[in-house]
Amino acid sequence: MNFIDLTEQQEMIREEIYRNISKVLDHGKYINGPEVVELETKLAKYVDVSYAVGCSSGTDALLMALMAYNTGPGDIVFTTPFTFFATAEVIQLLGATVVFVDIEPDTYNIDALKLEEVVIKTINESSLTPRGIIPVDLFGQAADYDEINSVAKRHDLFVVEDGAQSFGATYKGRKCCSLSDIGITSFFPAKPLGCYGDGGMLFSNDKELYEKLISIRVHGQGKDKYHNIRTGLNGRLDAIQAAILLAKYEIFDDEMILRQEVAGRYYEGLCDFVVAPLVRDYNISSWAQYSILHPERDEIISKLTEKGIPTSIYYPIPLHLQDALNHLGYKRGDFPVTEEISKKIFSIPMYPYLKAEDQEKIIEVISEFR
Ligand SMILES: *Cc1c(COP(=O)(O)O)cnc(C)c1O
Fold it and tell me: Is the full-model pTM beyond 0.90?
């Protein structure tokens, strides 16, 4: 059994992938080619925003979003300590300061009530300037954007939605990646919509931000490539990756339905033995991960490994306790909810084509630890 197995997906669309790649070989526009534009158009429509910008990865998408707001030294960006390192990394990379806010105990997403407390405390006590918030839609479930956006509005902060795990998910009927000023996603192969390499995309309704992002993507270009009006990046998406994504996008809606079914079967089988994921009634998750809590996590993982069932821990070390962020001065005990969850959480195989029989095996092993 694999943690994420996309061989069945590939078999279904292999012909389409060959056809699409072959078109790229024929036209030879390997970078930012017509497939990139077609993908941007389709995904902007899917997410229901005016503009989409394909780029080199989810990490670069976050970086570009912060660059579009001229984030830099002296600025503060708030985020969650319970996420993939990239979310905080990009803030630090631009010389800005990360301020963490603890998570909700049931969704593991940034706690909007605590967010406002931390923002007010920071405004009163820090000499630095609060600029923005990066909420993360962890494991595929949206954070609470109505609350977060109103905190942002009250304190004049931008909001960049880290939807690296939530493409395809919805919040109160609206698609993830459309829930704030800029939304980003990742096409890393294991994400809900993944390519066969690195890729990412930014989404926005703001024309001015869109034009900045287009410029930042290609070395801060102005009128053309050799006219530079700002410092940018090489942040482009390959046409071959867009070609692969166009083939995968055709079956993406079906896969979202399959993911709900897989999650439903896990819930039925596991909810009596573990803390199963809680999805708020106004949310639909894209189930990037199926993550459960159990005090005997390490024993369960050993038992599953023995039976050939792979698991992962997202995330074993909260970001405020990472060596690379030592200088921020956080210590153990600063974010008790995050720390508690990180000790008990682990993720089990999750992908659209996971078989009910395999899920039964997984449930059987876990149910021994009641
Ligand atoms: C995967 C991920 C990223 C980074 O995406 P890449 O495409 O791998 O650079 C950022 N944030 C979160 C929450 C992620 O899960």
Answer: yes
